Amino acid sequence: MSAPVFCLPRADSTNAWAKAHPDRSGGVWAVYTLDQTAGRGRLGRAWAGAAGQALYYTAVLPWAPAQLPALGLLAGLLVCEALQDRYAPGPDLTLKWPNDVLLAGKKLAGILCEGVPGRDKTVCGIGINLCQPAAVFAAAGLPHAASLAMLGIGADAKRDAAPLAEALTDALAREAPMLAAQGFAPYLDRYRAACVNLGRRVAWDGGAGTALDVDESGRLLVAEDGSGTVRLFTGEVSVRGIYGAL
Ligand code: ATP
User: Which CATH class is domain 5-189?
Assistant: First the structure.
């Protein structure tokens, strides 16, 4: 049986709604809307909304947030796979470590995984740009953002939101227990194949170097300039070097 998926006409943030209603259902469940008014990203950043033109989604997992960074990487991979299935033969999607989903080098989807305070539950929030025209991102000052429609992919938010939300929920319900049991190792080959950073220059607050690999905990291995190999944790850094020049 499929995991429950609820639709809201509007939400400030689906992560905030899920954290305020952690027992809306048991097991794995999800909530989504096409109208999110105060979306959030990592490190306190905002996620820009466009009513009726994008999917704003949160899955609730009934486990403590032991593997938050790796869950974010897994979610990015599952978003790529769900979109490739839905829009077959498939848009050319890549992943910018840790979990930005890129379409033609621009940001199509963002992910924010969080614990639920005081509860052994984790939320995994995903925003996917479906049909915004380029003007929406220009007006929001987001030159590195893209939607499927901007690249000529026939997305229809009203038609596609529910099946995408269901596919993501089923995939997370299937894969998250494996992640909890075995860590990120089973996903590494698929992740590496999609990861646009590997072999390229990256910079972050405090350093710069060449990205070498991703490890079984989801950390990015970097040959730091003038130094040895460092492992970057997802919660600490925002890696630059893919959107525009270093
Ligand atoms: P980075 O994009 O530098 O890797 P991040 O992974 O920490 O940062 P997220 O938490 O995924 O960022 O998303 C927030 C950032 O994404 C914002 O700072 C903004 O640059 C960009 N952004 C905000 N809204 C959108 C959107 N609808 N589509 C694409 N990008 C967006």
Answer: alpha beta
